[in-house]
Amino acid sequence: xxxxxxxxxxxxxxxxxxxxxxxxxxxxxxxxxxxxxxxxxxxxxxxxxxxxxxxxxxxxxxxxxxxxxxxxxxxxxxxxxxxxxxxxxxxxxxxxxxxxxxxxxxxxxxxxxxxxxxxxxxxxxxxxxxxxxxxxxxxxxxxxxxxxxxxxxxxxxxxxxxxxxxxxxxxxxxxxxxxxxxxxxxxxxxxxxxxxxxxxxxxxxxxxxxxxxxxxxxxxxxxxxxxxxxxxxxxxxxxxxxxxxxxxxxxxxxxxxxxxxxxxxxxxxxxxxxxxxxxxxxxxxxxxxxxxxxxxxxxxxxxxxxxxxxxxxxxxxxxxxxxxxxxxxxxxxxxxxxxxxxxxxxxxxxxxxxxxxxxxxxxxxxxxxxxxxxxxxxxxxxxx
Length: 384
Prior knowledge:
Strand order of the largest sheet: 1-2
Low-confidence stretches: 377-384
Largest sheet: 2 strands, antiparallel
Helix content: over 70%
Structural class: mainly alpha
Distance between the termini: 43 Å
Radius of gyration: 21 Å
Shape: globular
Number of strands: 2
């Protein structure tokens, strides 16, 4: 996934928060585990081992990625509204281009070279193509959703500079919320053939939670929470326990059945991840090392490369065993050996991709200043 600016050999921004990089590390590890669950075709059963059930709910990592994007990308705009500094929309788009397009296009061309499926070229326009270029295209849908958010965010924030714009933004948000709640509770809406479910319309709640957390983080409330580390720790623990209960239920119920039973599932988990994020940013106890540490920071840095690489590696390592008729339950050791190899291979290839493909463009991105000069609209407001 995106939004990680990288740290190795790059200029570290003043707003860098190690807690968020480690959370991104958790997100990618959860997603990698979830795809093992799918490729191994593990059955949904109450008597599954603990680790199997854990993997089955790992797609919560995608929601965490969306929350982090909503937080990190809206925060400069919100800070600009607060301080009167204007975010350059042109620079914002250039920064997003350097962050996601080069590596994504490289992944698409590799997928086309390996599969010779012309649907890959459709993906160059960030159009969701599902499993048409399997196994490479499995994670591409979320990048399409991210790009939709990128296209909307700067103009939504531009509206917030003006009184009429704020009314228009509020009206649009209420209209989206009404349609979102109505359609998600309508029979037949949550189906595998509905492309809107995983679009920005369907998953916008996670980005909105991230933006709301950014507003909280920029306010005095964040400082108040930081002065009460015990409360912050309780918030983190309570949200993590609720998340664990939620994604275990999701795993045991099955994705489609769970979403039909609880249509707002992704919004609820986004709220809980937002609580974890704000709590981690507020307290600095030694126990925090469990959730925020250099190893997770490393996985957070290479998460975008790992996100695009891991599914094909998993598939080509594990599918031959399934094709030979070997079941996981009866040939566990053979599968575990290949799982270990595929993890190391994915990790190594992701690190090389990060160093050779991502880092040069991240250096270009790091030279793009976030803010331009003090905004004319802010000067007028100050003069008034």
